[in-house]
Specification:
The complex is a heterodimer of chains A (104) and B (465).
Chain A: H1 6-26, H2 30-55, H3 61-91
Chain B: H1 2-7, H2 9-26, H3 32-49, E1 57-59, E2 64-66, H4 68-87, H5 89-94, H6 98-117, H7 121-139, H8 146-177, H9 182-188, H10 193-210, H11 217-225, H12 228-253, H13 258-281, H14 286-305, H15 310-342, H16 353-356, H17 358-372, H18 378-391, H19 396-421, H20 436-454, H21 456-464
Antiparallel strand pairs in B: 1-2
Helix pairs in contact in B: 2-3, 2-6, 3-4, 4-6, 4-12, 4-15, 4-20, 6-7, 6-12, 7-8, 7-12, 8-10, 8-11, 11-14, 12-14, 12-15, 13-14, 13-19, 14-15, 14-18, 15-17, 15-18, 15-20, 15-21, 17-19, 17-20, 18-20
The chains are: A mainly alpha (104), B mainly alpha (465).
Chain lengths: 104, 465
Protein backbone atom coordinates (compact mmCIF):
# COMPACT_ATOMS: atom_id res chain seq x y z
CA UNK A 1 0.00 0.00 0.00
CA UNK A 2 1.55 3.26 -1.16
CA UNK A 3 1.35 6.46 0.88
CA UNK A 4 -0.56 9.13 -1.07
CA UNK A 5 1.87 11.88 -2.09
CA UNK A 6 1.76 15.27 -3.75
CA UNK A 7 1.20 13.84 -7.22
CA UNK A 8 -1.92 11.94 -6.22
CA UNK A 9 -3.48 15.02 -4.72
CA UNK A 10 -2.50 17.19 -7.66
CA UNK A 11 -4.04 14.62 -9.98
CA UNK A 12 -7.30 14.71 -8.06
CA UNK A 13 -7.41 18.48 -7.87
CA UNK A 14 -6.66 18.91 -11.57
CA UNK A 15 -9.31 16.35 -12.45
CA UNK A 16 -11.77 18.15 -10.19
CA UNK A 17 -10.92 21.45 -11.85
CA UNK A 18 -11.59 20.16 -15.33
CA UNK A 19 -14.76 18.35 -14.25
CA UNK A 20 -15.90 21.75 -12.98
CA UNK A 21 -14.99 23.48 -16.25
CA UNK A 22 -16.74 20.77 -18.24
CA UNK A 23 -19.83 21.01 -16.08
CA UNK A 24 -19.90 24.78 -16.34
CA UNK A 25 -19.71 24.67 -20.11
CA UNK A 26 -22.18 21.84 -20.75
CA UNK A 27 -24.87 22.14 -18.07
CA UNK A 28 -27.87 24.30 -18.90
CA UNK A 29 -29.29 24.70 -15.42
CA UNK A 30 -28.03 27.75 -13.55
CA UNK A 31 -27.84 26.06 -10.14
CA UNK A 32 -25.80 23.21 -11.60
CA UNK A 33 -23.49 25.76 -13.21
CA UNK A 34 -22.97 27.36 -9.80
CA UNK A 35 -22.18 23.94 -8.37
CA UNK A 36 -19.57 23.45 -11.09
CA UNK A 37 -17.93 26.71 -10.04
CA UNK A 38 -17.81 25.41 -6.48
CA UNK A 39 -16.00 22.33 -7.79
CA UNK A 40 -13.41 24.58 -9.41
CA UNK A 41 -12.92 26.54 -6.19
CA UNK A 42 -12.58 23.36 -4.14
CA UNK A 43 -9.96 22.00 -6.51
CA UNK A 44 -8.02 25.20 -5.88
CA UNK A 45 -8.35 24.66 -2.14
CA UNK A 46 -6.98 21.13 -2.48
CA UNK A 47 -4.08 22.50 -4.49
CA UNK A 48 -3.21 25.07 -1.86
CA UNK A 49 -3.36 22.60 1.01
CA UNK A 50 -1.31 20.03 -0.86
CA UNK A 51 1.39 22.51 -1.79
CA UNK A 52 1.45 23.77 1.75
CA UNK A 53 1.82 20.31 3.25
CA UNK A 54 4.30 18.73 0.85
CA UNK A 55 6.31 21.53 -0.76
CA UNK A 56 6.36 24.49 1.61
CA UNK A 57 5.65 23.05 5.06
CA UNK A 58 7.25 26.01 6.84
CA UNK A 59 4.74 28.54 5.43
CA UNK A 60 1.13 29.35 6.26
CA UNK A 61 0.13 31.32 3.15
CA UNK A 62 -1.68 28.46 1.47
CA UNK A 63 -3.83 27.68 4.51
CA UNK A 64 -4.89 31.29 4.89
CA UNK A 65 -5.67 31.56 1.21
CA UNK A 66 -7.96 28.54 1.48
CA UNK A 67 -9.93 30.06 4.33
CA UNK A 68 -10.43 33.26 2.39
CA UNK A 69 -11.50 31.38 -0.74
CA UNK A 70 -14.19 29.53 1.21
CA UNK A 71 -15.54 32.79 2.64
CA UNK A 72 -15.55 34.61 -0.69
CA UNK A 73 -17.16 31.64 -2.45
CA UNK A 74 -20.06 31.89 -0.03
CA UNK A 75 -20.48 35.60 -0.75
CA UNK A 76 -20.35 34.99 -4.46
CA UNK A 77 -22.91 32.19 -4.26
CA UNK A 78 -25.23 34.43 -2.23
CA UNK A 79 -25.24 37.17 -4.84
CA UNK A 80 -25.49 34.66 -7.68
CA UNK A 81 -28.50 32.93 -6.12
CA UNK A 82 -30.20 36.27 -5.51
CA UNK A 83 -29.74 37.12 -9.18
CA UNK A 84 -30.99 33.68 -10.24
CA UNK A 85 -34.13 34.08 -8.10
CA UNK A 86 -34.80 37.43 -9.73
CA UNK A 87 -34.25 35.90 -13.15
CA UNK A 88 -36.74 33.18 -12.24
CA UNK A 89 -39.33 35.79 -11.29
CA UNK A 90 -38.97 37.48 -14.65
CA UNK A 91 -38.48 34.40 -16.76
CA UNK A 92 -40.26 31.51 -14.98
CA UNK A 93 -37.24 29.32 -15.70
CA UNK A 94 -33.62 28.93 -14.64
CA UNK A 95 -32.57 27.23 -17.83
CA UNK A 96 -29.87 29.13 -19.68
CA UNK A 97 -31.49 28.31 -22.99
CA UNK A 98 -34.58 30.29 -22.00
CA UNK A 99 -32.59 33.39 -21.12
CA UNK A 100 -32.01 34.46 -24.68
CA UNK A 101 -33.25 37.99 -24.97
CA UNK A 102 -29.75 39.42 -25.45
CA UNK A 103 -28.04 38.08 -28.52
CA UNK A 104 -25.26 38.82 -31.01
CA UNK B 1 -0.01 54.95 13.28
CA UNK B 2 0.44 58.18 11.41
CA UNK B 3 1.72 56.23 8.44
CA UNK B 4 -1.47 54.21 8.30
CA UNK B 5 -3.52 57.36 7.84
CA UNK B 6 -1.35 58.94 5.17
CA UNK B 7 -0.74 55.82 3.09
CA UNK B 8 -4.31 54.55 3.17
CA UNK B 9 -5.95 57.93 3.02
CA UNK B 10 -7.98 57.42 -0.17
CA UNK B 11 -9.29 54.08 1.11
CA UNK B 12 -10.10 55.48 4.53
CA UNK B 13 -11.90 58.52 3.15
CA UNK B 14 -13.91 56.33 0.81
CA UNK B 15 -14.79 53.97 3.66
CA UNK B 16 -15.92 57.03 5.61
CA UNK B 17 -18.20 58.07 2.78
CA UNK B 18 -19.63 54.55 2.54
CA UNK B 19 -20.40 54.50 6.26
CA UNK B 20 -21.96 57.96 6.13
CA UNK B 21 -24.29 56.87 3.33
CA UNK B 22 -25.06 53.66 5.20
CA UNK B 23 -26.02 55.55 8.35
CA UNK B 24 -28.19 57.93 6.35
CA UNK B 25 -29.87 54.91 4.78
CA UNK B 26 -30.56 53.00 8.01
CA UNK B 27 -31.42 56.15 9.89
CA UNK B 28 -34.29 58.34 8.90
CA UNK B 29 -33.71 58.04 5.18
CA UNK B 30 -33.35 60.97 2.83
CA UNK B 31 -35.10 61.78 -0.43
CA UNK B 32 -33.19 61.09 -3.63
CA UNK B 33 -33.20 64.81 -4.44
CA UNK B 34 -31.00 65.55 -1.43
CA UNK B 35 -29.03 62.31 -1.27
CA UNK B 36 -27.67 62.55 -4.81
CA UNK B 37 -26.15 66.06 -4.50
CA UNK B 38 -24.70 65.02 -1.14
CA UNK B 39 -23.00 62.03 -2.72
CA UNK B 40 -21.73 64.19 -5.57
CA UNK B 41 -20.21 66.72 -3.18
CA UNK B 42 -18.58 63.96 -1.12
CA UNK B 43 -17.09 62.34 -4.20
CA UNK B 44 -15.79 65.67 -5.46
CA UNK B 45 -14.22 66.34 -2.05
CA UNK B 46 -12.63 62.89 -2.15
CA UNK B 47 -11.26 63.61 -5.62
CA UNK B 48 -9.73 66.92 -4.53
CA UNK B 49 -8.37 65.35 -1.35
CA UNK B 50 -6.68 62.69 -3.47
CA UNK B 51 -4.18 65.24 -4.76
CA UNK B 52 -2.81 66.36 -1.39
CA UNK B 53 -0.65 64.61 1.20
CA UNK B 54 0.46 61.78 -1.06
CA UNK B 55 3.38 59.71 0.17
CA UNK B 56 4.99 56.46 -0.84
CA UNK B 57 5.38 53.42 1.36
CA UNK B 58 4.32 49.93 2.39
CA UNK B 59 1.96 48.64 5.04
CA UNK B 60 0.85 45.40 6.72
CA UNK B 61 4.03 43.44 6.12
CA UNK B 62 4.30 44.40 2.44
CA UNK B 63 0.74 43.48 1.62
CA UNK B 64 -0.29 47.00 0.66
CA UNK B 65 1.82 49.64 -1.01
CA UNK B 66 1.28 52.98 -2.59
CA UNK B 67 3.23 55.34 -4.80
CA UNK B 68 2.50 58.70 -6.42
CA UNK B 69 1.59 56.92 -9.63
CA UNK B 70 -0.90 54.69 -7.81
CA UNK B 71 -2.42 57.71 -6.09
CA UNK B 72 -2.89 59.29 -9.51
CA UNK B 73 -4.55 56.14 -10.87
CA UNK B 74 -6.94 56.18 -7.93
CA UNK B 75 -7.77 59.80 -8.66
CA UNK B 76 -8.63 58.93 -12.25
CA UNK B 77 -11.08 56.24 -11.08
CA UNK B 78 -12.53 58.59 -8.50
CA UNK B 79 -13.10 61.27 -11.12
CA UNK B 80 -14.86 58.71 -13.27
CA UNK B 81 -17.30 57.79 -10.52
CA UNK B 82 -17.98 61.46 -9.82
CA UNK B 83 -18.75 62.04 -13.50
CA UNK B 84 -21.09 59.03 -13.56
CA UNK B 85 -23.12 60.39 -10.65
CA UNK B 86 -23.43 63.66 -12.57
CA UNK B 87 -24.18 62.27 -16.02
CA UNK B 88 -26.66 59.59 -15.01
CA UNK B 89 -28.54 61.89 -12.60
CA UNK B 90 -31.77 61.31 -14.52
CA UNK B 91 -31.78 57.59 -13.85
CA UNK B 92 -30.28 57.86 -10.36
CA UNK B 93 -32.97 60.26 -9.17
CA UNK B 94 -35.75 57.97 -10.27
CA UNK B 95 -34.39 54.72 -8.90
CA UNK B 96 -36.15 53.72 -5.68
CA UNK B 97 -32.97 52.35 -4.09
CA UNK B 98 -30.48 55.14 -4.66
CA UNK B 99 -28.66 54.69 -1.34
CA UNK B 100 -28.05 50.99 -1.99
CA UNK B 101 -26.88 51.73 -5.49
CA UNK B 102 -24.34 54.28 -4.25
CA UNK B 103 -23.18 51.90 -1.53
CA UNK B 104 -22.57 49.13 -4.03
CA UNK B 105 -20.84 51.44 -6.48
CA UNK B 106 -18.54 52.90 -3.84
CA UNK B 107 -17.75 49.43 -2.42
CA UNK B 108 -16.71 48.35 -5.88
CA UNK B 109 -14.56 51.47 -6.13
CA UNK B 110 -12.99 50.64 -2.76
CA UNK B 111 -12.20 47.18 -4.07
CA UNK B 112 -10.50 48.72 -7.07
CA UNK B 113 -8.41 50.99 -4.85
CA UNK B 114 -7.19 48.00 -2.85
CA UNK B 115 -6.63 46.03 -6.04
CA UNK B 116 -4.37 48.71 -7.53
CA UNK B 117 -2.44 49.01 -4.26
CA UNK B 118 -2.07 45.30 -3.60
CA UNK B 119 1.40 43.81 -3.28
CA UNK B 120 0.17 40.37 -2.36
CA UNK B 121 -1.95 37.90 -4.29
CA UNK B 122 -4.29 37.34 -1.34
CA UNK B 123 -5.16 41.03 -1.07
CA UNK B 124 -5.36 41.18 -4.83
CA UNK B 125 -7.90 38.35 -4.96
CA UNK B 126 -10.03 39.77 -2.15
CA UNK B 127 -10.01 43.21 -3.75
CA UNK B 128 -10.87 41.81 -7.16
CA UNK B 129 -13.91 40.06 -5.71
CA UNK B 130 -14.91 43.21 -3.85
CA UNK B 131 -14.69 45.03 -7.17
CA UNK B 132 -16.81 42.53 -9.14
CA UNK B 133 -19.52 41.09 -6.87
CA UNK B 134 -21.21 44.46 -6.16
CA UNK B 135 -21.12 45.31 -9.86
CA UNK B 136 -23.06 42.13 -10.65
CA UNK B 137 -25.67 43.16 -8.10
CA UNK B 138 -25.75 46.64 -9.65
CA UNK B 139 -26.32 45.16 -13.11
CA UNK B 140 -29.58 43.70 -11.79
CA UNK B 141 -30.88 47.05 -10.61
CA UNK B 142 -33.80 47.31 -13.03
CA UNK B 143 -35.51 44.64 -11.00
CA UNK B 144 -38.60 44.24 -13.15
CA UNK B 145 -36.78 44.09 -16.48
CA UNK B 146 -36.00 40.70 -17.97
CA UNK B 147 -32.94 42.01 -19.79
CA UNK B 148 -31.38 43.35 -16.62
CA UNK B 149 -31.71 40.02 -14.81
CA UNK B 150 -30.30 38.16 -17.76
CA UNK B 151 -27.32 40.52 -18.06
CA UNK B 152 -26.59 40.25 -14.35
CA UNK B 153 -26.77 36.44 -14.53
CA UNK B 154 -24.24 36.40 -17.36
CA UNK B 155 -22.00 38.81 -15.47
CA UNK B 156 -21.93 36.90 -12.16
CA UNK B 157 -21.45 33.51 -13.80
CA UNK B 158 -18.65 34.60 -16.09
CA UNK B 159 -16.88 36.56 -13.39
CA UNK B 160 -17.14 33.67 -10.90
CA UNK B 161 -15.81 31.30 -13.56
CA UNK B 162 -12.94 33.61 -14.39
CA UNK B 163 -12.00 34.07 -10.75
CA UNK B 164 -11.97 30.27 -10.43
CA UNK B 165 -9.46 30.12 -13.26
CA UNK B 166 -7.47 32.95 -11.67
CA UNK B 167 -7.32 31.06 -8.38
CA UNK B 168 -6.11 27.90 -10.07
CA UNK B 169 -3.32 29.94 -11.64
CA UNK B 170 -2.49 31.51 -8.28
CA UNK B 171 -2.36 28.10 -6.60
CA UNK B 172 0.11 26.85 -9.19
CA UNK B 173 2.20 29.99 -8.79
CA UNK B 174 2.22 29.39 -5.05
CA UNK B 175 3.24 25.81 -5.59
CA UNK B 176 6.15 26.67 -7.81
CA UNK B 177 7.47 29.78 -6.03
CA UNK B 178 6.35 29.24 -2.44
CA UNK B 179 5.12 32.77 -1.98
CA UNK B 180 2.09 34.93 -2.63
CA UNK B 181 3.90 38.21 -2.18
CA UNK B 182 4.43 39.90 -5.53
CA UNK B 183 8.05 41.09 -5.07
CA UNK B 184 9.09 37.62 -3.87
CA UNK B 185 7.31 35.97 -6.78
CA UNK B 186 9.19 38.20 -9.18
CA UNK B 187 12.50 37.09 -7.68
CA UNK B 188 11.65 33.40 -7.86
CA UNK B 189 10.15 33.17 -11.34
CA UNK B 190 12.42 31.16 -13.61
CA UNK B 191 10.18 30.35 -16.56
CA UNK B 192 9.69 26.65 -15.82
CA UNK B 193 6.85 24.85 -17.56
CA UNK B 194 4.66 24.80 -14.47
CA UNK B 195 5.06 28.54 -14.07
CA UNK B 196 4.16 29.15 -17.70
CA UNK B 197 1.02 27.03 -17.27
CA UNK B 198 0.17 28.97 -14.11
CA UNK B 199 0.72 32.23 -15.93
CA UNK B 200 -1.60 31.20 -18.75
CA UNK B 201 -4.40 30.56 -16.24
CA UNK B 202 -3.66 33.88 -14.57
CA UNK B 203 -3.63 35.69 -17.90
CA UNK B 204 -6.92 34.11 -18.99
CA UNK B 205 -8.68 35.50 -15.95
CA UNK B 206 -7.45 39.00 -16.78
CA UNK B 207 -8.54 38.49 -20.37
CA UNK B 208 -12.05 37.74 -19.08
CA UNK B 209 -12.16 40.84 -16.94
CA UNK B 210 -10.74 43.09 -19.65
CA UNK B 211 -13.01 41.40 -22.25
CA UNK B 212 -10.30 40.56 -24.73
CA UNK B 213 -11.37 38.41 -27.67
CA UNK B 214 -12.04 35.40 -27.42
CA UNK B 215 -13.16 35.98 -23.82
CA UNK B 216 -15.44 38.90 -24.69
CA UNK B 217 -18.78 37.17 -25.16
CA UNK B 218 -20.32 38.33 -21.89
CA UNK B 219 -19.48 41.99 -22.48
CA UNK B 220 -22.06 43.12 -25.00
CA UNK B 221 -24.93 41.27 -23.29
CA UNK B 222 -24.14 42.67 -19.87
CA UNK B 223 -23.71 46.18 -21.24
CA UNK B 224 -27.03 46.06 -23.06
CA UNK B 225 -28.95 44.53 -20.19
CA UNK B 226 -27.80 46.70 -17.30
CA UNK B 227 -29.00 50.20 -16.51
CA UNK B 228 -26.85 52.74 -18.32
CA UNK B 229 -25.15 54.05 -15.16
CA UNK B 230 -23.87 50.52 -14.55
CA UNK B 231 -22.84 50.13 -18.17
CA UNK B 232 -20.71 53.24 -18.01
CA UNK B 233 -19.24 52.10 -14.67
CA UNK B 234 -18.36 48.72 -16.17
CA UNK B 235 -16.93 50.02 -19.39
CA UNK B 236 -14.79 52.78 -17.91
CA UNK B 237 -14.06 52.33 -14.21
CA UNK B 238 -13.89 48.53 -14.00
CA UNK B 239 -11.97 48.26 -17.21
CA UNK B 240 -9.57 51.04 -16.26
CA UNK B 241 -8.82 49.51 -12.85
CA UNK B 242 -8.20 46.07 -14.32
CA UNK B 243 -6.00 47.59 -17.03
CA UNK B 244 -3.91 49.32 -14.34
CA UNK B 245 -3.37 46.20 -12.24
CA UNK B 246 -2.79 44.06 -15.34
CA UNK B 247 -0.11 46.52 -16.39
CA UNK B 248 1.52 46.33 -12.95
CA UNK B 249 1.42 42.54 -13.02
CA UNK B 250 3.08 42.34 -16.42
CA UNK B 251 5.62 45.13 -16.02
CA UNK B 252 6.55 44.65 -12.36
CA UNK B 253 5.91 41.00 -11.51
CA UNK B 254 6.06 38.75 -14.56
CA UNK B 255 9.06 40.49 -16.10
CA UNK B 256 11.13 37.28 -16.27
CA UNK B 257 8.51 35.79 -18.59
CA UNK B 258 8.48 38.68 -21.01
CA UNK B 259 8.98 36.51 -24.12
CA UNK B 260 5.92 34.47 -23.21
CA UNK B 261 3.45 37.23 -22.52
CA UNK B 262 4.58 39.54 -25.27
CA UNK B 263 3.55 37.02 -27.92
CA UNK B 264 0.26 36.30 -26.14
CA UNK B 265 -0.53 40.00 -25.92
CA UNK B 266 0.24 40.64 -29.58
CA UNK B 267 -2.01 37.80 -30.77
CA UNK B 268 -4.87 38.76 -28.45
CA UNK B 269 -4.52 42.42 -29.31
CA UNK B 270 -4.87 41.79 -33.05
CA UNK B 271 -7.86 39.49 -32.45
CA UNK B 272 -9.49 41.97 -30.07
CA UNK B 273 -9.15 44.91 -32.40
CA UNK B 274 -10.36 43.06 -35.49
CA UNK B 275 -13.29 41.23 -33.90
CA UNK B 276 -14.38 44.23 -31.81
CA UNK B 277 -14.41 46.44 -34.88
CA UNK B 278 -16.15 43.99 -37.16
CA UNK B 279 -18.93 43.37 -34.65
CA UNK B 280 -19.32 47.07 -33.94
CA UNK B 281 -20.01 47.64 -37.64
CA UNK B 282 -23.33 45.83 -37.55
CA UNK B 283 -24.79 47.02 -34.24
CA UNK B 284 -28.05 48.94 -34.13
CA UNK B 285 -28.41 49.37 -30.38
CA UNK B 286 -26.28 52.26 -29.07
CA UNK B 287 -25.26 50.42 -25.87
CA UNK B 288 -24.16 47.33 -27.80
CA UNK B 289 -22.37 49.55 -30.26
CA UNK B 290 -20.44 51.25 -27.46
CA UNK B 291 -19.74 47.83 -25.91
CA UNK B 292 -18.04 46.55 -29.04
CA UNK B 293 -16.23 49.82 -29.52
CA UNK B 294 -14.89 49.50 -25.98
CA UNK B 295 -13.70 45.96 -26.81
CA UNK B 296 -11.81 47.41 -29.76
CA UNK B 297 -10.31 50.10 -27.50
CA UNK B 298 -9.00 47.37 -25.18
CA UNK B 299 -7.12 46.02 -28.17
CA UNK B 300 -5.36 49.36 -28.45
CA UNK B 301 -4.51 49.34 -24.74
CA UNK B 302 -2.90 45.92 -25.24
CA UNK B 303 -0.79 47.45 -27.98
CA UNK B 304 1.04 49.55 -25.39
CA UNK B 305 1.34 46.59 -23.02
CA UNK B 306 3.45 44.76 -25.60
CA UNK B 307 6.01 47.56 -25.35
CA UNK B 308 9.66 46.91 -24.52
CA UNK B 309 9.98 50.22 -22.71
CA UNK B 310 7.94 49.64 -19.53
CA UNK B 311 7.97 53.23 -18.39
CA UNK B 312 6.70 54.55 -21.70
CA UNK B 313 4.13 51.75 -21.96
CA UNK B 314 2.64 52.40 -18.54
CA UNK B 315 2.51 56.17 -19.12
CA UNK B 316 0.71 55.63 -22.42
CA UNK B 317 -1.83 53.28 -20.81
CA UNK B 318 -2.64 55.62 -17.92
CA UNK B 319 -2.91 58.63 -20.22
CA UNK B 320 -5.16 56.71 -22.59
CA UNK B 321 -7.42 55.50 -19.78
CA UNK B 322 -7.84 59.12 -18.63
CA UNK B 323 -8.87 60.22 -22.13
CA UNK B 324 -11.01 57.14 -22.70
CA UNK B 325 -12.82 57.94 -19.44
CA UNK B 326 -13.80 61.42 -20.65
CA UNK B 327 -14.79 60.29 -24.15
CA UNK B 328 -16.70 57.17 -23.23
CA UNK B 329 -18.52 58.80 -20.30
CA UNK B 330 -19.59 61.69 -22.54
CA UNK B 331 -21.04 59.26 -25.08
CA UNK B 332 -22.76 57.24 -22.36
CA UNK B 333 -24.03 60.44 -20.75
CA UNK B 334 -25.84 61.48 -23.92
CA UNK B 335 -27.18 57.96 -24.41
CA UNK B 336 -28.30 57.92 -20.78
CA UNK B 337 -30.36 61.09 -21.08
CA UNK B 338 -32.01 59.96 -24.31
CA UNK B 339 -32.74 56.44 -23.09
CA UNK B 340 -34.12 57.63 -19.79
CA UNK B 341 -36.37 60.34 -21.22
CA UNK B 342 -37.59 58.73 -24.44
CA UNK B 343 -36.77 55.02 -24.11
CA UNK B 344 -35.06 55.05 -27.51
CA UNK B 345 -31.85 53.07 -27.81
CA UNK B 346 -31.39 52.53 -31.53
CA UNK B 347 -28.91 54.45 -33.64
CA UNK B 348 -31.67 55.12 -36.17
CA UNK B 349 -33.60 56.99 -33.49
CA UNK B 350 -30.72 59.44 -33.23
CA UNK B 351 -31.37 60.73 -36.76
CA UNK B 352 -31.96 64.46 -36.80
CA UNK B 353 -30.84 64.88 -33.20
CA UNK B 354 -28.85 67.96 -34.19
CA UNK B 355 -32.01 69.86 -35.20
CA UNK B 356 -33.61 69.43 -31.81
CA UNK B 357 -30.73 69.01 -29.33
CA UNK B 358 -27.63 70.78 -30.68
CA UNK B 359 -25.71 70.78 -27.37
CA UNK B 360 -26.00 67.02 -26.84
CA UNK B 361 -25.17 66.42 -30.50
CA UNK B 362 -21.93 68.37 -30.23
CA UNK B 363 -20.92 66.52 -27.06
CA UNK B 364 -21.70 63.17 -28.71
CA UNK B 365 -19.75 64.16 -31.82
CA UNK B 366 -16.77 65.28 -29.76
CA UNK B 367 -16.82 62.02 -27.80
CA UNK B 368 -17.05 59.84 -30.89
CA UNK B 369 -14.30 61.79 -32.68
CA UNK B 370 -12.12 61.31 -29.63
CA UNK B 371 -12.87 57.58 -29.51
CA UNK B 372 -12.03 57.31 -33.20
CA UNK B 373 -8.80 59.28 -32.68
CA UNK B 374 -9.23 62.35 -34.87
CA UNK B 375 -6.56 65.04 -34.29
CA UNK B 376 -7.78 68.05 -32.36
CA UNK B 377 -9.39 65.83 -29.72
CA UNK B 378 -7.45 64.07 -26.99
CA UNK B 379 -8.21 60.62 -28.39
CA UNK B 380 -5.70 61.21 -31.16
CA UNK B 381 -2.89 61.87 -28.70
CA UNK B 382 -3.87 58.90 -26.57
CA UNK B 383 -3.74 56.56 -29.59
CA UNK B 384 -0.52 58.19 -30.78
CA UNK B 385 1.27 57.44 -27.51
CA UNK B 386 -0.14 53.91 -27.40
CA UNK B 387 1.13 53.20 -30.89
CA UNK B 388 4.51 54.82 -30.20
CA UNK B 389 4.89 52.69 -27.09
CA UNK B 390 3.87 49.57 -29.02
CA UNK B 391 6.28 50.36 -31.85
CA UNK B 392 9.21 50.39 -29.44
CA UNK B 393 8.83 46.68 -28.90
CA UNK B 394 6.72 44.76 -31.34
CA UNK B 395 6.91 43.93 -35.01
CA UNK B 396 5.90 46.60 -37.47
CA UNK B 397 3.19 44.48 -39.10
CA UNK B 398 1.42 44.64 -35.77
CA UNK B 399 1.45 48.44 -35.79
CA UNK B 400 0.15 48.34 -39.37
CA UNK B 401 -2.79 46.16 -38.32
CA UNK B 402 -3.57 48.62 -35.52
CA UNK B 403 -3.50 51.56 -37.94
CA UNK B 404 -5.81 49.74 -40.37
CA UNK B 405 -8.19 49.04 -37.50
CA UNK B 406 -8.34 52.71 -36.68
CA UNK B 407 -9.61 53.31 -40.21
CA UNK B 408 -12.30 50.63 -39.86
CA UNK B 409 -13.38 52.13 -36.54
CA UNK B 410 -13.68 55.54 -38.21
CA UNK B 411 -16.43 54.12 -40.42
CA UNK B 412 -18.76 53.12 -37.62
CA UNK B 413 -18.14 56.15 -35.44
CA UNK B 414 -18.88 58.41 -38.40
CA UNK B 415 -22.04 56.41 -39.13
CA UNK B 416 -23.47 57.61 -35.82
CA UNK B 417 -22.29 61.17 -36.42
CA UNK B 418 -23.91 61.12 -39.87
CA UNK B 419 -27.18 59.93 -38.34
CA UNK B 420 -27.07 62.74 -35.79
CA UNK B 421 -26.06 65.62 -38.03
CA UNK B 422 -27.04 64.84 -41.62
CA UNK B 423 -29.87 62.31 -41.85
CA UNK B 424 -33.42 63.58 -42.10
CA UNK B 425 -36.04 62.27 -39.73
CA UNK B 426 -39.76 63.01 -39.63
CA UNK B 427 -40.20 62.54 -35.91
CA UNK B 428 -36.85 63.22 -34.27
CA UNK B 429 -36.28 63.13 -30.52
CA UNK B 430 -38.04 66.14 -29.05
CA UNK B 431 -35.95 68.93 -27.48
CA UNK B 432 -34.91 67.74 -24.01
CA UNK B 433 -34.17 70.09 -21.17
CA UNK B 434 -31.05 68.91 -19.39
CA UNK B 435 -30.77 68.87 -15.62
CA UNK B 436 -28.01 71.07 -14.18
CA UNK B 437 -25.73 68.21 -12.97
CA UNK B 438 -26.04 66.43 -16.31
CA UNK B 439 -25.09 69.60 -18.16
CA UNK B 440 -22.15 70.14 -15.80
CA UNK B 441 -20.98 66.58 -16.34
CA UNK B 442 -21.19 66.92 -20.11
CA UNK B 443 -19.28 70.20 -20.03
CA UNK B 444 -16.57 68.63 -17.84
CA UNK B 445 -16.27 65.68 -20.21
CA UNK B 446 -16.15 67.97 -23.24
CA UNK B 447 -13.48 70.13 -21.62
CA UNK B 448 -11.55 67.00 -20.68
CA UNK B 449 -11.68 65.68 -24.24
CA UNK B 450 -10.30 68.91 -25.66
CA UNK B 451 -7.85 69.91 -22.94
CA UNK B 452 -6.31 66.54 -22.02
CA UNK B 453 -4.85 66.45 -25.50
CA UNK B 454 -3.75 70.05 -25.82
CA UNK B 455 -2.17 70.46 -22.39
CA UNK B 456 1.05 68.54 -22.76
CA UNK B 457 1.91 68.83 -19.06
CA UNK B 458 -0.65 66.13 -18.25
CA UNK B 459 1.36 63.56 -20.16
CA UNK B 460 4.61 64.93 -18.75
CA UNK B 461 3.16 64.78 -15.24
CA UNK B 462 2.21 61.10 -15.63
CA UNK B 463 5.60 60.40 -17.18
CA UNK B 464 7.40 62.04 -14.25
CA UNK B 465 5.60 59.96 -11.60
Amino acid sequence: MMEPGLYHILFISTALFFIGVFGFLTRRNLITMLMSIELILNSVNLNFIAFNKYVWPEKMDGLFFTIFIIAIAAAEAAVAIAIIINLYRNNQSIDVNNAEELKY
Amino acid sequence: MNELFTLMKSELVLTGIIFLLLFIKIGKGVKNETLLPLAQVLLLANFVFGFVLNTEGRLFGDMFYTTHLIAFQKNILNLGVYLITLLCADWLRKTPHLAEFLLLMLSALLGMFFMISSANLLIFYLALELATIPVAAMANFDLDKKKSAEGAMKMILSSAFSSGILLFGISLIYGSTGSISLPEIQERLDGSTLQILAFIFFFTAFAFKLSMVPFHLWTADVYEGSPIAVTSFLSVISKGAVAFIFMTMLFRVFTPMKEVWQVMIIILSVLTMVVGNLFALRQQNIKRFLAFSSIAQVGFILLALSSDDFHMGSTAVIYFVLIYLFSNLAAFGVASVITERTGKENIDDYKGLYKTNPFMSWILALALFSLAGIPPTAGFFGKLFLITAGASGAAYWFILVAALNMIISLYYYLRVIRAVFMDKNDNPIEPLKLMAPVKLGMLLCGAGIVLAGLLSWIYDYIHSL
